[in-house]
Specification:
disordered N terminus, globular, 6-stranded antiparallel sheet, 15 strands
Length: 464
């Protein structure tokens, strides 16, 4: 608590007035919800019967919430210990949850305009069914229960509140939806037999301070007001703590070392944006950054050899690589990726010039909720966030194992410190184009680049 208190003079939002109301982001289907978030179950019923049924429905919902059971295909939630309970047709669904934080101004009643555009903190998480994988921040708990013809599945959110806020600084609200029908179909290799993405139903409710479980520190985004850009909370905090030693620049500046970014479309967009930022501000970055875009999966021999040649022969001080993560998610085989990545890592030199470093960059998140025609586009059915997460898990483990073989911390091989996979999961609201499920807009790309360059600078990874 003492550490958090040290931020108050610099990042004190408790004294700010609540941001003004703006246009709403459609995080819930408001046409199917009452004001309190309960579902409209009897639309189209007229007159006194409508009022009677609505009243009976509300009483029934109160009983459901108190008993954690439901006979409807809608999700419910228990406001205790960070538990979300989903009742649906799916026994083991994958759920997406987003928690939004709003400036409280000392109160968290209806006076606070809970519009996601007004939020100053947010985090998104995709549920996991495995005890020994991932961070465990949003995990299925207990076995699903069959209630009538529907399944009741419970999930536990076990995360820290955003840093550096303390109790009373913010009011919170959680939005959640059934994202995928089940893990098996969401993990299936191309060509997938069916579209596992659902993206509904959607609901929301207040999230109380006592519901935080501080088992895990997930990647929040924060900003001072709705007019500011989002930034990673850990960088905001670290930058304040070190403002007189190694501050992170508020803008992207030319690095003191050379950088190569190798990958498919999203890494290439980021690299091109970095070049544009450097050229826009000054000429010091000329020749500092090189971009290499490679398409297709590693199963393609031409693609594999293109990556192998780049990794083996790159002369830059820092080599950031992502071996076709988006292609692998959409059109690849997980087993084949595992074997091909093992072979590819062998091409990275064990002895490099002047402490040259190679960093694996996790694949950025995909947001099928933005692609309205996904149900009719069979070629995109395998491009799921569940596959992206699994590919990142496999790649991180393989890179760490290879680095240990080469000497651990002294190895020239590592994983990019910046959690771009988690940061990009928070930004479904910033696609490159309105229907793009895999690429991000300039605001998100700038945020990711600032975090990457700041982390590289602060790690002082290159010895002059």
């Amino acid at each position: 608590m003492a550490l958090r208190a040290s931020f108050a003079p610099i990042f004190d939002m408790r004294r700010r007035s609540p941001p003004q109301h703006g246009a709403s982001i459609d995080m819930t289907d408001q046409s199917n919800l009452y004001d309190d978030g309960s579902p409209r179950r009897y639309r189209g019923v007229a007159g006194s019967w409508r009022l009677f049924l609505l009243f009976a429905s509300a009483i029934f919902l109160l009983l459901v919430l108190s008993m954690k059971g439901d006979s409807d295909a809608s999700p419910t939630a228990a406001a205790k210990d960070g538990i979300l309970t989903v009742v649906s047709q799916h026994q083991r669904p994958i759920v997406m949850a987003t928690i939004w934080g709003y400036s409280s101004d000392g109160k968290c009643g209806k006076e606070i305009e809970r519009n996601p555009e007004n939020a100053i903190a947010k985090v998104a998480l995709l549920s996991d069914q495995h005890e020994n994988r991932g961070s465990g921040a949003f995990r299925q708990v207990d076995e699903p229960k069959l209630v009538g013809t529907l399944w009741e599945t419970s999930f536990r959110l076990a995360i820290h509140p955003p840093f550096p806020f303390e109790e009373g600084d913010l009011c919170f609200e959680v939005h959640w939806r059934v994202e995928y029908a089940d893990e098996e179909s969401a993990l299936s290799d191309f060509p997938s037999k069916r579209c596992s993405f659902l993206g509904s139903p959607r609901f929301h409710r207040p999230w109380n301070w006592h519901e935080w479980n501080i088992d895990h520190g997930e990647q929040w985004l924060v900003r001072e007001s709705r007019d500011e850009s989002w930034g990673a909370d850990y960088l905001v905090a670290v930058n304040m703590l070190n403002e007189f030693r190694h501050p992170c620049s508020p803008s992207i500046r030319a690095p003191d070392y050379t950088v190569a970014i190798i990958g498919d479309s999203q890494p290439h967009y980021m690299c091109q944006h970095l070049l544009w930022e450097l050229q826009k501000t000054n000429l010091e970055g000329k020749g500092k950054v090189r971009c290499s875009q490679i398409k297709q999966t590693l199963q393609n021999a031409t693609t594999f050899h293109a990556y192998a040649e780049e990794l083996q022969n790159a002369t830059e001080d820092v080599v950031i690589f992502n071996p076709s993560g988006l292609w692998e998610a959409a059109y690849g085989s997980i087993d084949a990726f595992r074997e091909n990545l093992r072979r590819l890592l062998e091409y990275i030199p064990t002895k490099t010039k002047d402490r040259q470093r190679h960093f694996f960059a996790p694949t950025t998140a995909v947001h099928p909720v933005n692609y309205k025609d996904l149900g009719r586009d069979e070629r995109k059915w395998s491009m799921t966030q569940v596959r992206v997460r699994e590919l990142n898990r496999i790649a991180k483990q393989m890179v760490m194992n290879e680095a240990k073989k080469r000497g651990g911390d002294e190895s020239s091989l590592g994983i990019l410190h910046t959690p771009i996979d988690a940061l990009s999961l928070d930004r479904e609201d910033d696609p490159k184009t309105p229907s793009d499920m895999r690429h991000f807009g300039n605001e998100t790309i700038t945020m990711l680049l600032k975090a990457i360059m700041c982390d590289l600078d602060r790690k002082n990874i290159v010895l002059g």
